[in-house]
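sorry to bug you again but im stuck and you know this stuff better than me. what follows is a protein written twice so to speak, once as letters and once as C-alpha cells for the fold. id like you to explain what the C-alpha cell line says about the fold, in plain words if possible. anything you notice is useful, everything is just below.
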Amino acid sequence: MHSAVVTPEGDRIRWVELPGESPARVYVHGLGASSGPYFTGVAAHSLLAGRRAMLVDLLGHGISDRPDGFGYTLEAHADALAAALDAAGVTGAEVVAHSMGGSVAIVLAGRYPELVSRLVLVDANLDPLTPERGADGSRGIAAYSEGEFLRGGGWEETRKRAGGHWWATMRLAGRVALHRSAVHLAAGSEPTMREQLLKLELPRTFLLPADDAPLPGADELAASGVSVVAVPDCGHNIMLDNPEAFVRAVAEAAE
C-alpha cells in the first residue's frame, strides 16, 4: 500500500499499485466505492497488464483518510488526487474513472493537464442532478440535509437501498464524506463536467451500458472527439458486470 499527504492538515490518500511500465494507468472509483474491489480484476487482465496501475481511493473513501473538515467538492477531490499523483511521480497518466470518479477525472484533466494524457470515463456523471427523496444512488443521498443524513436516519435508509455490493464499500466511507460528495456531485461543477469534457484536448472515451444508449448529447460529444462506446450485458458497474468487454474497450481506447 502507498500513500501521500494531500491536505495541509496531513490527510492521506492511499492506493494499491500493480507494477509495470509508464505511463501509469490510474483507476478512480465512484461515490461510496473503493478502487480495489471495483478494478483489481480488470487491471490485472492480460490485455491491460504490463502498465503501472494505481488503484486510488479518494479522500473519505476506502483505505484513504476520512477528514470531516474537507470540502468534498469535485474540485477539492481533483486537487487532492493531483497531489497524490504528483507525490507518486506520475505524469501523463491514462485515467480510468467510474461514475463520480469520472466527474473528478474530468476536473483533474482540466486543472492539471500535465497529469493526464487520456481519459476513459465509465458511465460518469456529466450533468448536475436533481436530488430526490427515496431515489437510489447519489440523488437519494443528496436529498438529505447533512444533519438528516448523519443523525436523522438518512444513513440507515441509504444502507437499506444500497444493495449488498455497494454497501460492502459504502460502509468504509466516512459519513460526512459520503454525504458531501453526493451533494457536490449533484450540484456539478462550474462549468459543468460535460462542458469541460467537450473542451479537453486529449483522447477521451466514454463507456456506458448498451441498455442506456443513446447517451444524451452523444452527437455533440462525438463531434468534439469523444469516443462513445456502448458496452453490452452490463449495468452501471460495467467493470464488474462484463469485465471482458470492459477490458477490451479500455485496451482499444489506449491504441
